[in-house]
Amino acid sequence: MNAKAVIEGILKEKGTVKQVYWVACGGSLIDLYPAHFMLNAESATVESGWYTSKEFVLSTPKKLGKDSMVVVCSHSGNTQEAVDAAILAKEAGAAVITLTDGKGSKCDDERFIAWVYPWGEGVPTAEVPSGITLLLAAELLKAQEGFDKYDALCDGIQKMDGIVAAAKVKVNAEMGEAFAKACQENNFFYILGSGATFSQTYGFAICSLMEMQWQNCAYIHSGEYFHGPFEVTENGVFYFLQMGSGACRPMDERALAFLKTHTDRLMVLDALDHGMDAVDAGVRDYLDSVLFYAMNVELRAARGRVFDHSPDIRRYMGIETY
Question: Which of 56, 92, 181, 218 shows the greatest Cβ crowding within 10 Å of its Cβ?
């Protein structure tokens, strides 16, 4: 499948899309956030909403209907909350795209526009949810109202594979061991970020560390840091700052300036130091998250090696009834 053909088909049927809802759970939800962020930043005609699946079902937006496009992502394809959301959206008259790695799963169903993507080492950014969703949003923008950053975004997506490959080497050489040691020395710490990248600030905390490493931590928006959370900053408290490279970077820079003088435990992962200067400045906001996800994977692996804790181990998920 390709994003242009999918959007052309939807617009041929509907004429116009007025709302786009991005719906998923956990890591899949995180992958949808940059496209949602981009639509709200770049579109004058399309409203975008971002929902965890159960909330979408329990508190369904009233505008959901024939003018809506709903993108539901479930990596396994069998997350019941996500399946329920897709069925609800379809019954409401929306165009429903399901993204899944699970061929033959509940999301790979002829009722939906089912997009089964590959997964694993070496799969290009353009072929996984983080890239697919940005391309879907870009094609919709281009078709309905024009999108002057379209070429820059497509070029940036193509560049991300090389950027990520080089950044992995750099992060493992310069940060992996230090991050694992910081986790040994700090039972709890804070992770900061902003813009579309905040999805990976959130994701690093709840998925890579809390879920996969059983590491206690919390996420804070770099802008919101100064509206309460900075009061707990002091020496001995560890902060990990993800610095974006796009329009929202000034919020991260402001946080960095304060942290440098108010804590003696700080690590900074700066997108501009890891290749994002090769991407057009106008679309970096939407692609930083691709970089940070890959770096988060490397850092959680480094912690896992030191703690002898495989990222695949779970004690509750898929084991207990919940």
Answer: 56
E strands, 244-318, are 265-270
The pTM score is 0.96
- Report the sign of the C-alpha dihedral through residues 269, 123, 211, 194, in that order: positive
Q: Helices 284-307 & 129-144, crossing angle to 10 degrees?
A: 170
The residue extents of the domains of the chain are: 3-144, 172-307
DSSP 66-104: TTEEEEEE-SSS--HHHHHHHHHHHHTT-EEEEEES-TT
Which amino acid makes up residue 212?
M
d(C-alpha 220, C-alpha 238), whole Å: 13
Fold equal for 3-144 and 172-307: yes
Chain Cα centroid distance, residue 154: 18
Whole-angstrom Cα distance, residue 285 to residue 196?
Answer: 6
How far is residue 130 from each of residues 33, 173, 198, 276, measured CA to CA in Å?
Answer: 9, 26, 14, 16
Task: Pick the closest to residue 99 from 210, 232, 1, 218 (CA basis).
Answer: 1
Tell me the one-letter amino acid at 278.
Answer: A
Domain 3-144 has CATH 3.40.50.10490: yes
Query: 107-164: per-residue pLDDT in tens?
Result: 999 999 999 999 998 899 999 999 999 999 999 999 999 999 999 999 999 999 999 9
List the structure tokens of 39.
């639509």
For residue 179, report the phi and psi dihedrals to the nearest 5 degrees: -65, -45
Task: Write out the two tokens for 114.
Answer: 């089912």
Distance (Å, whole) CA 207 – CA 122: 21
